[in-house]
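User: Structure please.
Assistant: Input sequence and predicted structure:
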Amino acid sequence: MSPLIIVVCGNALRASKLNTEAKMFKGKEAKSIKLFARHFKIDDQMKLLRENVIHFAVATPERLRSLLQQDGISLAHTRAVVIDWNWRDVKMKRLIDVREARSSLMSLLKDHVIPACKKYHVKIGLF
């Protein structure tokens, strides 16, 4: 229930692409999961997280926040939360430029990630 690395990105399309591009970084043995709302129910994702060891997770801010609120995921063994800060979509908007994503990201950081940094020594990174 606690991936080693969590990458937070702006939308489902970017999450899928980033997960594919990270194969070389992850290696063959690392297991990864995509955490976003498109075509995936939160209960199914919670079940996958409970039943498998996940090393690398790519998530949208809202889905990650929802999973943390419902205790579907934990940050106890997470070493890094990486924010996909510089990537821009076709409209040249970053994660922080989209109002809905910005509010989800800020509440995610304030309510879950920063307290985990103090309690579990999670690191925050910008990509």
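The first strand starts at residue 5 and ends at 8.
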